[in-house]
Amino acid sequence: xxxxxxxxxxxxxxxxxxxxxxxESAARTYARSFPIVPVRASGMTIEGADGRRYLDCLSGAxxxxxxxxxxxxxxxxxxxxxxxxxxxxxxxxTPEKDDFTDALxxxxxxxFRDRARVHFCGPAGTDAVEAALKLMETATGRRGLLAFTxxxxxxTAGALAxxxxxxxxxxxxxxxxxxxRLPYPYAYRCPFxxxxxxxxxxxxTYTERLLDDPAGGVVPSAAMIMEIVQGEGGAVPAPDGxxxxxxxxxxxxxxxxxxDEVQTGVGRTGAFWAVEHSGVEPDAxxxxxxxxxxxxxxxxxxxxxxxGWLPGAHTGTFRGNTLAMAAGAATLRYVARExxxxxxxxIGARMMSRLDGLRAALPAIGDVRGRxxxxxxxxxxxxxPTDSCGARPAAPRTAAAVRAACLRxxxxxxxxxxxxxxxxxxxxxxxxxxxxEAVLDRLADAVxxxxxxxxxxxxxA
Length: 461
Ligand SMILES: Cc1ncc(COP(=O)(O)O)c(C=O)c1O
What we know:
By secondary structure, this protein is of the alpha/beta class. The protein has 2 domains: 168 residues, Aspartate Aminotransferase, domain 1 (Alpha-Beta Complex), CATH 3.90.1150.10; 265 residues, Type I PLP-dependent aspartate aminotransferase-like (Major domain) (Aspartate Aminotransferase, domain 2), CATH 3.40.640. Helix content is 39%, strand content 16%. It has 16 helices and 17 strands. The chain has a 7-stranded mixed β-sheet, sandwiched between helices. A hairpin with a 5-residue loop joins β8 and β9. The two termini are 42 Å apart. Pyridoxal-5'-phosphate binds next to α7.
């Protein structure tokens, strides 16, 4: 540790950042957008080594349903440590794992729960996505995969193959996976140039006809994988009717439906699992992030008829993290007991309504969308031409400038979506009314500073 205290009294904060830049990989991401050294955190607030406090609207990329260091999570971790239980157990049975499984199954929609199996994966969403794809490839004996434009499923080979983002795939050799890319109903930037409800209808018709076209180029499908609200894709919610159509289309063709709830799960969208909004019963759900209460944990839950794996078919060393299971069980129960899904729905609706008002006042905001506390604010060039649906060109430089202006105001907001032009709000489900106001005030101020002030001064935004 550097012997030189920075202005905060924390030893070497500036030096820590300098050493990070010098020693960590060029692939580091959040550290570039947020050059802060967190030293303490509680609820929605992070304190940096520079002594500044930040409202955290990123929440560990959606992992912290209860915010930082929630007493319920801290207590579960402490209790587990105090009992002296093994912290690493491979995939052996333990009381903590048994209890986590009870807590998890209690959250599942009824009919799905009755026939559910769980597989503990390596502790990242991407590994659980790999597991789900392999499970269905094994069960069906097929190799084709159906995935969507704008999708994000992770960074390992199979998950990356079903991810939409071209920039991260382009430098790599082909993965070998045979993926058919289907249109996701993104109302603001409709893939068919029509927008509105018609967009989702056409997307469903196109999918159905493509799958039935013997010359459509689609090999028999092992699975369709979808997000109910695309997270990294820019907080794009799918209409419930379209989700039901995807279920009908896959069921009629005996194609398993995998719902990736890594980001949408545990109350975030206003239902415990986002798929519940549509009433659809999937064949498998991929879960990670919030299920570990902020500690690393990932599982897939699926209908038992698909459980045709051989022993060790998807193994891994770190599949038995006792602390994560204890923290996760406490979090799942707290979210259910305190009705935090309903709270997310109500607060999210309030935030979106105020953001909609802001959109009317600030033309740099092209679209406000989302579900529950998964909200996207897409920034556009207000002077650019509109497309056939009225959308203006994405404004990634404005978005990056707004992110920086938010940080200067003590607000952490990350970007996502096409061209990284969407501000993504992922506050903890425990956000208070005062924090809601503070987040929206700072955000409004930041957008106004970046998009209005330069124009008044005669400079382009
Ligand atoms: C929907 C979705 N699936 C999978 C992943 C990958 O999870 P991880 O980053 O833990 O590998 C993410 C991460 O953001 C995600 O949002």
